[in-house]
Each structure stands twice: as C-alpha cells, then as structure tokens.
Amino acid sequence: AILLLQLLIHGAALKILAKINPVKLFIKCRDVLLLSFGTSSSYVAMPATLNACQAKLGIPPSLASTAVPL
C-alpha cells in the first residue's frame, strides 16, 4: 500500500505541482528509498538521504540539512 501511495499519489503530485518527472526522481533516489523502506529506521536513512539530496539532486547543503530532519 505504501509503495502504491509513493508511486501514484506522490508521483502525480510531483508531475502536476512541481513539474518534475517522477520516474527520473525515483531513479535518482532509489538507493535511499530502498534503504528507508528496508530498515524502517530514520537514524540509518538520514545520512544517506542528506548525501543523496546534495550529490544527486543538487540541493544546497544548508537547505538539505534543514529540511531532511523535518
């Protein structure tokens, strides 16, 4: 059910509201998504998410370090 929500609802919101191709975004973030769903631990996933936001998505470190913990 969560996978369906992630792909359909969030994918549609990305496409319509942010004008971002959800397939490309999910491909860039697949390692972090698999880690997050596989471990169910934000403590383990947060450093990987910060690195992915900065390296793969090009989000400035100041913004990523503020937004990711929220």
What does this structure look like?
By secondary structure, the chain is mostly helical. It contains 5 helices and no strands. The radius of gyration is 12 Å and the shape is globular. It starts with a helix and ends with a helix. The model has no long low-confidence stretch (mean pLDDT 87).
Helix content: over 70%
Our Rg estimate from Cα atoms comes to: 12 Å
Overall, the morphology is: globular
- The oligomeric state is single chain
N- and C-termini, Cα separation? 23 Å
Find the count of extended strands (DSSP E, 2+ residues): 0
By helix and strand content, what is the structural category? Answer: mainly alpha
Low-confidence stretches: none
The number of helical runs is 5
The biggest beta sheet is recorded as: none
- Mean pLDDT across all residues, rounded? 87
Could you give the order of the helices and strands?
Answer: HHHHH
Summarize the model shown.
With 70 residues, the protein is an all-alpha fold. It contains five helices and no strands.
Output the keywords.
5 helices, 70 residues, mainly alpha
Helices and strands in order, then pairings?
Elements: H1 2-18, H2 22-28, H3 30-39, H4 42-55, H5 61-67
